[in-house]
């Protein structure tokens, strides 16, 4: 029998992660990486010998520790949170991105573990994220001293309903690249080998993102995940665009190196105007009247079956910045966050997700004052995972 390591598995939104405590992991970086890969069963496309779920949305890690001392940004926070995207078929962990879905579960985890004093009916957990050197504010409903899991909030792509947790990503603007608009422009032109020029929006909230018009890729923008994933030439093109965007934002050493140096971010979104489309998961029609913008998202070289929480916040912010491609595709009456707080509805493959956005014009640019995502979370398992000696 291997060495026991205490772990918790939690679902946050449409993702699932293994939660580990900082103090339980080796301090040596190489030993820590080896331990985590063994916990997940990587590298192996089935992750058969570990806790990984053989899918990018379930091969996720949250390392939780006490409030970080001596870090200015971590002042007045409750906990420290490091996110890891564990590669499935490669012995790597991406530490450069942030999962917003799992961030919702982080707030509940902190209360369950006694790291934050619960206050009914809502406990605000201030969390210092090491990946972006930014603070997340996670609002968790509480009852009888414990996170409330039962409720009537629906997250498309998640069975049933749950209690609504809100995560505010406003402090993450520029967290990866140093600026909300890394190049200072609402749009840029990238030259892609064997394709030509393509217009994109490069923007950084939650995670760095590249947005491109769906029609510029020869697609409608309302395709299902299966349709996109079967289109191998499109997948290859999207990865080239993502790499070029990452290089333009200063995230990687070359466009070709993006797949290895930063496989999870930037994420790439394909945006289009509101339209009717089929939700293959729930077998229903999403009406154009129920969305303000339509988007399809690539994550780890696969199409996201729903929509990432950080991407929800970023898409909402981009929809309110004049000149971006997302702003161009967004319903005109939904573009009012510069005047007041605005809820933006994003149509994705599994339904519709809303985000509250509020921006302020400052010195010729924009300050993000609010960028929220609502999720649900559930504690699934706690116990010990046995790490091979």
Highlighted features:
389 residues; Diaminopimelate Epimerase, Chain A, domain 1; 19-stranded mixed sheet; two-stranded antiparallel sheet; 7 helices; 21 strands; 3-methylitaconate isomerase; isomerase activity; isomerase
Task: Determine Rg (CA atoms, Å).
Answer: 20 Å
Task: Specify the CATH class of the largest domain.
Answer: Alpha Beta
Range of helix content = 10-25%
State which percent range the strand residues make up: 35-45%
Gap from first CA to last CA: 8 Å
Class from secondary-structure proportions: alpha+beta
Give unreliable regions as ranges: none
What's the pLDDT, averaged over the residues? 95
Instruction: Give the overall silhouette.
Output: globular
Brief description of this entry?
The protein has two domains: 3-173 and 377-387, Roll (Diaminopimelate Epimerase, Chain A, domain 1); 188-370, Diaminopimelate Epimerase, Chain A, domain 1 (Roll). The chain contains seven helices and 21 strands. It has helices at residues 29-40, 100-112, 225-229, 232-248, 258-261, 309-318, 325-329, and strands at 3-12, 15-21, 60-66, 79-86, 93-94, 122-129, 134-143, 146-147, 165-168, 188-192, 196-205, 207-213, 267-272, 277-279, 284-286, 293-299, 302-303, 342-348, 351-362, 365-375, 377-387.
């Amino acid at each position: 029998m291997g060495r026991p390591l205490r772990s918790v598995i939690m679902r946050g939104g449409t993702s699932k992660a293994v939660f580990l405590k900082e103090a339980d992991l080796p301090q040596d970086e190489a030993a820590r990486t080896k331990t985590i890969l063994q916990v997940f069963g990587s590298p192996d496309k089935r992750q058969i010998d570990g806790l990984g779920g053989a899918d990018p949305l379930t091969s996720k890690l949250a390392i939780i520790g006490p409030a970080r001392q001596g870090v200015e940004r971590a002042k007045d926070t409750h906990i420290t949170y490091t996110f890891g995207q564990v590669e499935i078929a490669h012995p790597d962990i991406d530490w450069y991105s942030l999962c917003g879905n799992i961030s919702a579960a982080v707030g509940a985890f902190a209360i369950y573990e006694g790291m934050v004093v619960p206050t009914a009916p809502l406990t605000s957990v201030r969390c210092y994220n090491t990946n972006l050197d930014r603070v997340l504010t996670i609002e968790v409903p509480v009852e009888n001293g414990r996170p409330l899991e039962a409720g009537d909030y629906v997250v498309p792509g998640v069975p049933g309903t749950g209690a609504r947790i809100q995560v505010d990503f406003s402090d993450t603007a520029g967290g990866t690249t140093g600026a909300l608009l890394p190049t200072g422009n609402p749009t840029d032109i990238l030259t892609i080998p064997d394709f030509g020029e393509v217009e994109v929006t490069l923007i950084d909230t939650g995670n760095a993102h590249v947005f491109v018009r769906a029609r510029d890729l020869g697609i409608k923008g309302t395709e299902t995940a299966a349709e996109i994933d079967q289109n191998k030439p499109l997948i290859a093109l999207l990865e080239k665009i993502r790499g070029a965007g990452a290089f333009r934002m200063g995230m990687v050493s070359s466009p070709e190196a993006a797949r290895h140096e930063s496989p999870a971010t930037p994420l790439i979104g394909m945006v289009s105007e509101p339209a009717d489309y089929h939700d293959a998961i729930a077998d229903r029609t999403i009406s154009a009247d129920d969305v303000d913008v339509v988007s399809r998202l690539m994550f780890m070289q696969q199409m996201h079956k729903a929509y990432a929480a950080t991407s929800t916040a970023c898409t909402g912010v981009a929809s309110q910045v004049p000149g971006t491609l997302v702003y161009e595709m967004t319903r005109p009456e939904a573009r009012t966050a510069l005047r007041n707080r605005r809820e933006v509805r994003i149509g994705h493959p599994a339904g519709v997700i809303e985000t509250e956005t509020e921006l302020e014009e400052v010195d010729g640019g924009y300050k993000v004052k609010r960028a929220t995502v609502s999720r649900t979370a559930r504690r699934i398992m706690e116990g010990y995972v046995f790490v091979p000696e």
